[in-house]
Design a protein that fits this description.
Enzyme class (chain A): oxidoreductase
Pfam family, one (chain A): Transket_pyr
Radius of gyration of chain B: 24 Å
Protein name (chain A): 3-methyl-2-oxobutanoate dehydrogenase (2-methylpropanoyl-transferring)
Shape of chain A: globular
Bound molecules: thiamine diphosphate
Helix content of chain B: 40-55%
Order of helices and strands of chain B: HHHEHHHHEHEEEHEHEHHHH
EC number (chain A): 1.2.4.4
Strand order of the largest sheet of chain A: 3-2-4-5-7-6-12
Radius of gyration of chain A: 19 Å
Oligomer: heterodimer
Structural class of chain B: alpha/beta
Structural class of chain A: alpha/beta
Number of helices of chain B: 14
Strand content of chain A: 15-25%
Largest interface: A-B, 65 and 69 residues
Number of strands of chain B: 7
Largest sheet of chain B: 5 strands, parallel
Distance between the termini of chain B: 23 Å
Organism (chain A): Streptomyces mirabilis
Number of helices of chain A: 12
């Protein structure tokens, strides 16, 4: 297959299909991933083609899903598990944090845990409670886990391939409101490393750093700012653990200004870490403090208020203006 | 203060992102069953003396047949022995109105007035029977589909719609009807119910607690832990599992290999399987279990064997995983038709009653429509309300920033 336009969800589906096809040790597990193809249809058709032994509908127990995936990985399998929605990962949080993340180190590096945990995350789809959260910082804080999030179909395809091939546990956050966004996927191109940030749009006046669902918002903001004569660089971080600080630094040394954007609450979030590191690394380059745009220190609100809660174009542009005003 | 639209500032975008839905293709697929997993997925091969996990089995408590004939049961008849024709009509009315409310909510979702709806269609008897068994001072912990139980507890049904419309994350004061908020994280509430029941016991009160959950939820660790805690502390709690055969696309066989009610045995308390489409049996069995709890005899697991006739929620597509014939076979066991047949055959209700109820049902539908359409969007500042009981400096700071940001739109508009 060469280049093809497909939705982000479909790109993940194709990626899982490729993995199931090429590696008999790859398994898909989760609630409703079989016949239904997942509530977002990301695993659509996989059980039909690979059977119930490889695409497994699990009991409704997240701790059980992750705990058994750990056991399967110990036995040489490469499970890719689906947590149905962001807010439902917490029954499994214990298994992820106390077991999955630490086992490799505890075994003096003698065992590997190639488990991918797929989590559709973030808001913007008008859902009920627990279906719109962005808990990535809670995972990025835990040593032993890798945390990534694609922002477009091509990355979704390739980052999933790389996550499955990784011998470390990877928490794979899927921007659910971008599932239906289409993009070019080139399945024979050789991608960059999983944890490398990429410049999604080049610019010279300020850097917007984002990942997952917010990359699109930042690209729109940069386009709007362009009309006002401002040249904004957009950096797609792609990985929250590790974070490619070198790419952020290179961009900031060029633009001298940084605004970090994510849906998760700002307080103690990914943006806080980036602001601190970049301040350390680029103190003499910065023309303005690193600013952050994100969610509030409040529970994710009911759907009719999510537009106020989520960073939109205007809030991002507001931060751009504030930064440029220094 | 309500902030007006952001239009004054000339937003540099078109307001509002497109709400996307999780729906997708409707093509059904047949799975290529493999040997090993299908063995585990098959109907229970038969624990000695136990019915398969998927069939109702001989232990099913039933007081009213699908044809509407009253049958005797020595153990549970005493709990409904004194039921009056009026009370029977009341149960019927509850079921009809609950179904009507549910249908209205489903249509409202289709019309874009609700973001989502979890229908109870088919589960009216399980909910009304058990709900009517509770006493005013009992406490109920529902999941997200217990509209019929809410009805029995006197919660205004329109209050249930706020969270599905997206204007709040709850919608009622749990203490005013002893009906807790809906719980979306599967199984969580069973532990809350157990803890509450432990408190009831400590207080020396004689009320009881009932926790609702699904067959899928029975797989969650929280549910297992609630069984352990309630048994060890002899908590006055009734676990009411509505086995509606499906957890979204997964049949009960994906959760268990023994009938669910038998789980209780391993924890040291009784488990009963009741015909969940028989409102009289549900009432009797739940009363029995609640009374046991009140007498200090500890927890009971009631498995109401029923069927979810509609989709899991309005974003689900059941044609992908289940056959129409299955639903049709359950339609023959419809809880409402069954009680109607009995009421008519025993001359407990006349045409006038049914006609009046039809009018009442219409009026309820109308009221629900009107209330939902008039439901205002929340104030923008609601985001920051009740985050903490005692207030929090960071929240105050962010609220002020938010206010300044909102005000900036108006100011610029006025300045120009
Ligand atoms: C911890 C958790 N995992 C997954 C979900 C998503 N989910 C919502 S309802 C549901 C199925 C529940 O089935 P069951 O417990 O049988 O109850 P029913 O909906 O059939 O009444 C699932 C998987 C959730 N809400 N919570």
């Amino acid at each position: 297959m060469a280049a093809e336009k497909m939705a982000l969800a479909k790109a993940i589906n194709e990626s899982l299909r490729t993995a199931l096809d090429t590696d008999p040790k790859v398994l898909i597990m989760g609630e409703d991933v079989g016949k239904l193809g997942g509530v977002f249809r990301v695993t659509d058709g996989l059980q039909k083609d690979f059977g119930e032994d490889r695409v497994i509908d699990t009991p409704l127990a997240e701790s059980g899903i992750v705990g058994t995936a750990i056991g399967l990985a110990l036995r040489g399998y490469r499970p890719v598990v689906e947590i149905q929605f962001d807010g439902f990962v917490f029954p499994a949080y214990d298994q992820i944090v106390t077991q999955l993340a630490k086992m490799h180190a505890r075994a003096l590096g003698k065992i590997k845990l190639p488990v991918v945990i797929r989590i559709p995350y973030g808001g913007g789809i008008g859902a009920v409670e627990h279906h719109s959260e962005s808990p990535e910082a809670l995972f990025a804080h835990v040593a032993g886990l890798k945390v990534v999030s694609p922002s477009n179909a091509s990355d979704a395809y390739w980052m999933m391939q790389q996550a499955i091939q990784s011998d470390d546990p990877v928490i794979f956050f899927e921007p659910k409101r971008r599932y239906w966004d289409k993009g070019e996927v080139t399945t024979d191109a050789i991608p960059g490393p999983l944890h490398k940030a990429v410049v999604a749009r080049a610019g010279s006046d300020l850097t917007l750093a984002a990942y997952g669902p917010m990359v699109k918002v930042c690209l729109e903001a940069a386009a709007a700012a362009q009309e006002e004569g401002k040249s904004i660089e957009v950096l797609d971080l792609r990985s929250m653990s590790p974070i490619d600080f070198d790419s952020v630094q290179a961009s900031v040394e060029k633009t001298r200004r940084l605004v970090v954007v994510h849906e998760a609450p700002v307080f103690l979030g990914t943006g806080a870490e980036i602001a601190a590191r970049i301040t350390e690394r680029c103190f003499y380059h910065l023309e303005a403090p690193v600013l952050r745009v994100g969610g509030y220190h409040a529970p994710y609100p009911p759907a009719r208020l999510e537009e106020e809660y989520l960073p939109g174009l205007d809030r991002v542009l507001d931060a751009v203006d504030r930064s440029l005003a220094y | 203060m309500t902030v007006e639209s952001t239009a004054a500032r000339k937003p540099r975008r078109s307001a509002g992102t497109t709400a996307a839905k999780s729906g997708a293709s409707t093509t059904g697929t047949k799975s290529a069953a493999s040997k090993r997993t299908s063995a585990a997925g098959k109907k229970s091969p038969g624990v000695p003396g136990a019915p398969g996990a998927s069939g109702p089995g001989p232990e099913l408590v039933q007081l009213l047949t699908p044809e509407g004939e009253r049958v005797k049961d020595a153990t549970y008849d005493p709990y409904v022995a004194d039921i009056t024709p009026e009370e029977l009509r009341g149960l019927y009315r509850d079921m009809v109105l609950t179904r009507r409310f549910d249908a209205e909510a489903t249509s409202l979702q289709r019309q874009g007035e609700l973001g989502l709806w979890a229908s109870l269609l088919g589960q009216e008897a399980a909910q009304i029977g058990s709900g009517r068994a509770t006493r005013e001072d009992d406490y109920v912990f529902p999941t997200y589909r217990e509209h019929g139980v809410a009805w029995c507890r006197g919660v205004d049904p329109t209050n249930l719609l706020g969270m599905f419309r997206g204007v709040n994350n709850g919608g009622w004061d749990p203490n005013s009807n002893n009906f807790h908020l809906y719980t979306i994280v599967i199984g969580s509430q069973t532990l809350h119910a157990t803890g509450y029941a432990m408190g009831v016991a400590k207080d020396g009160a004689d009320s009881a607690v009932i926790a609702y959950f699904g067959d899928g939820a029975s797989s969650q660790g929280d549910v297992a832990e609630s069984f352990t805690f309630s048994a060890v502390y002899n908590a006055p709690v009734v676990f009411f599992c509505q086995n509606n055969q499906w957890a979204i696309s997964e049949p009960t066989e994906k959760q268990t290999r023994v009938p669910l009610y038998q789980r209780a045995q391993g924890y040291g308390f009784p488990g009963v399987r009741v015909d969940g489409n028989d409102v009289i049996a549900c009432l009797a069995v739940t009363k029995w279990a609640l009374e046991r709890a009140r007498r200090g005899e500890g927890p009971t697991l009631v498995e109401a064997y029923t069927y979810r006739m509609g989709a899991h929620t309005t974003s689900d597509d059941p044609t992908k995983y289940r056959a129409d014939e299955e639903r049709e076979s359950w339609e023959a066991k419809d809880p409402i038709l069954r009680l109607r047949a009995y009421l008519e055959a025993s001359n407990h209700a006349d045409e006038g009653f049914f006609a009046e109820l039809e009018a009442e049902s219409e009026a309820l539908g109308k009221r629900v429509r009107e209330v939902v359409r008039a439901m205002p969007d929340p104030d923008h500042f609601a985001i920051f309300e009740n985050v903490y009981a005692d207030g929090h400096a960071l929240v105050d700071e962010e609220r002020a920033q938010f206010a300044a940001y909102q005000a900036s739109f108006a100011d610029e508009g006025e300045g120009k």
